[in-house]
Structures are given as C-alpha cells and as structure tokens.
Amino acid sequence: MAFSERVDRLKSSLIREILAAAQRPEVMSFAGGLPAESMLPKVDWDQMPASMGQYGMSEGEPALREAIAAEARSLGIDCSDSQVLIVSGSQQTLDLASKLFIDRGTEVLLEAPTYLAALQVFQLFGADCLSIPQESDGPLLDALRQRLEKHHPAFAYLIPTFQNPSAVRYSEEKRDAVAALLDEYNVTLIEDEPYRELVFDDENARPIVSRMHKASWIYTGTVSKTLLPGLRVGYLIATPDLFPYLLRLKQSADLHTNRIGQWQALQWLGSEQYHAHLAELRRFYCLRRDAMQDALTKHFFDLADWQLPQGGLFFWLRLKRPLDTRTLLKPALARDVVFMPGEPFFVDPEQNPGYLRLNFSHVAPDRLDEGIRLLASVVRGAYVV
Ligand code: PMP
C-alpha cells in the first residue's frame, strides 16, 4: 500500500495500550491523567438551544472566546477575543502547530522529560527534537542558551505549570529568564497549561507568554482537567502573525469544534458555582495527593526519590537503582496495578531509565495504599531476578 512517508513514523501509543489493559474493573490504574469520576460535573442538556446542533464558526463560539480572552488577560496575557481559537482539546493545538511549523528535519525544543503525546505528534511530522534538562524549578538555563546559540528551532514547547510528567513548576526567575531568551533569539513559544488551575498552594506565577515582548507565541489550555475531558474543548491564543494560519489549518482539520461541548463548557465557566467547583476540586485532589505521599513514603522510601507535587495530577519517581521501567509493566498488570513508565517521555528513552509517572487523582484512597504496596513489590521483584 502506498501510504505517506509519515506513516512509517507512526508509533503505537504506549499510554493508550496501557489504558486499554487497565479497563478491567479490578485493575488499580496510576497510569492515565484521568480526573476522578466523582468530581465530573453533571451535564444538563435540556437547556441547550437547538441551534447548537447547527454548523458553527471555525474560530469557536463568540461568548466562549470572550470568556477565555478575559481569563487570559487576568493572567497578564495581552490578547483580544480575536486571538482565541477554540480547539478539540489542547491536543489539537499540538497537531495544528505541528502542521504550521514542522517539515522533515525541522528542529524543535522540548523539556526532558516532556509530554509523551506532544513528542509523538512532533515526531510524526518529522521534527528533530532537541531536549533541555529540567531542574526542580524549571529548565537548565545554560543548556537552553546553548541550544539557542547553536540551533534555530521552529519553536520551544514548554509546560511550565505542573509539568506532565515531572510535576515541575517553573519559578518566577526561570519564567523571566526563558521569556528573555526566547525573545533574544526570536524563537516562538508554545506554552501548554492544562494543569494551571489544579494548584494546591495558590502560588502560581504568571504564564511565560505574558512576559514576552518580541517573539511569537501560542498559549494553550483545556477544560479537560477541570470540567470534562469528554467534551473535547480546549483553546489556543496566538499572536496575530500566527492566528490566521492556525485558523485555516483548523478549518481543514474539522471545520469547527463540537458546539454542544462549547455550549456546555461556557455554561459552567460562566456560572456562579464555577469558582466553588474549582476550590472543591483542589481540596479533593490535594487529599489524594497526600494519600499517595503517605503510601509512597511507606513503601518506596528506599526505592525512589521524588518531589511533593504542589498541583497537577502526577508524582514523578526516580528509582535509586535505575532499570528499564517498561519491563515492570507486565508483572504489575499481573498484580492488577498499572503505572506509566518514564522512558517514553524522553526523546532518547534508552538514556533515561528508572522513572515512573504515578497519577494520584483516579484511585480511591481506600485502595491506594494497597496499589502502591503492590507496585513497590513489583520493583523489588525486578531487582531480585
Ligand atoms: N497537554 C498536556 C501537557 C496534557 O497533559 C494533556 C492531557 N493529558 C493534553 C495536552 C491534552 O489535553 P486535552 O484533553 O485538552 O486534549
């Protein structure tokens, strides 16, 4: 069959395969980034105007664009409604940006580790991915500067607030320094912020794009982590030089985002209860984070090191004695527990063994300790063999 050359780069998604295996009800899954089912708001379709079933504008529903622009301005992002494009989940931003920027061999800059599905889509389009090591407060600035001196990447893709998978949140200083460097070298930033609102300590810093003065940028967010991932509603905000291209790429992809989902998202975002819902979500996830911290301290204290996440959905564990954590998946599944191996989050997986990403939002606290105990016994078992 004469497929496009791109198809040769199409890798199966390890995370999708793991999630499929984790469908059995007895399996305790620490693998996905799923919100807790009990925290999903209930949909009330009865109020929905029939017109929402009609074709809509490619840009998205005007009232939703307005609400998103207003929220972005409150974070210090200089933008108007006309710079907001509603997309089918922020994953679509990554796809549209890839189509806009990437040809075979185009260089792009990423954090090491970075979001697996972003890495996959950039590689699918043929990008040459250059990574920058992460520290506990953001990227290693010397490494970033060196990369920018020697290369001219089409863009840098960063997740500065509760990064997936590492849970790192960039400090004020690093946000300023990254913005200044990207401006200096005139490199476009794609800033991906699905977890900004899932914060436990109220200490979030302004987005990096709000600190930039020269280079172009795309800021992207989603309702997937705070409302319903099943709505498939996300957004991007882009500088005016990029927006018209992204809009046309959106039109060729799917004409417009699901209007029913947009309508429902707007009902919630504009409701009086929204802030109470967010506060409840934070409290709920913070308790689950604490439960996992307790279980890890009990069962993993001699096996791994980690930082306590101040938001987001994940713990990122580094084994004291590195091994390829992909080899732990089978024995873990045999014990009805599943997690996300760290290797696929790196551009060079073989060079980075020994990390595990554990989601703390999904498994109920009364089963969590047992799940972590089983996982620890799988790791111990691997050292004995
Ligand atoms: N970016 C990051 C960093 C994510 O973690 C996720 C979801 N796991 C996405 C984008 C995609 O989210 P959405 O559901 O909006 O497509």
UniProtKB/TrEMBL annotation:
Cofactor(s) demanded: pyridoxal 5'-phosphate
Keywords for this protein: Aminotransferase, Pyridoxal phosphate, Transferase
Protein family membership: Belongs to the class-I pyridoxal-phosphate-dependent aminotransferase family.
InterPro entries: Aminotransferase_I/II_large, Class-I_PLP-dep_aminotransf, PyrdxlP-dep_Trfase, PyrdxlP-dep_Trfase_major, PyrdxlP-dep_Trfase_small
Pfam family, one: Aminotran_1_2
Coiled-coil annotated spans: none
Protein name: PLP-dependent aminotransferase family protein
A GO biological-process term: alpha-amino acid metabolic process
Molecular function per GO: pyridoxal phosphate binding; transaminase activity
Domain of life per record: Bacteria
Subunit structure: Homodimer.
Species, as recorded: Stutzerimonas zhaodongensis
Domain Aminotransferase class I/classII large: 52-372
